[in-house]
Amino acid sequence: QERLTESGGGSVRAGESLRLSCAASGVIVKPYTMGWYRQTPGEQRELVATIDSVGGETYADSVKGRFTISGDSAEKTVYLQMNNLKPEDTAVYYCNVKGVGFITYEFWGQGTQVTVSS
Length: 118
Fold this sequence. Notes:
Elements: E1 3-7, E2 10-13, E3 18-25, E4 32-39, E5 46-52, E6 57-59, E7 67-72, E8 77-82, E9 91-100, E10 104-108, E11 112-117
Parallel strand pairs: 2-11
Antiparallel strand pairs: 1-3, 3-8, 4-5, 4-9, 5-6, 7-8, 9-10, 9-11
């Protein structure tokens, strides 16, 4: 069973930075995407950023230019560098890994809270 372990959440002021990390254990079959989603109470979980197994990146419009996703496929880790944080970035951030080829699967981390105060 795949397991995703997240770290790096916390409370910061607007304009500050945080870096989230997610490490996957077990076997990940390529091709896959790894990334981050976020959710606030009463809202649907939304995509923040993903990176695929050949390095292709996807970002939500709301974070483009402020957030950067990176990954290490050998170490099965993904990072999210979040700069110039805004109060509207406050959410629980979830790591996700998804098989997108012949073998499909999807796993979620437990979530890490990011709180940005004005």
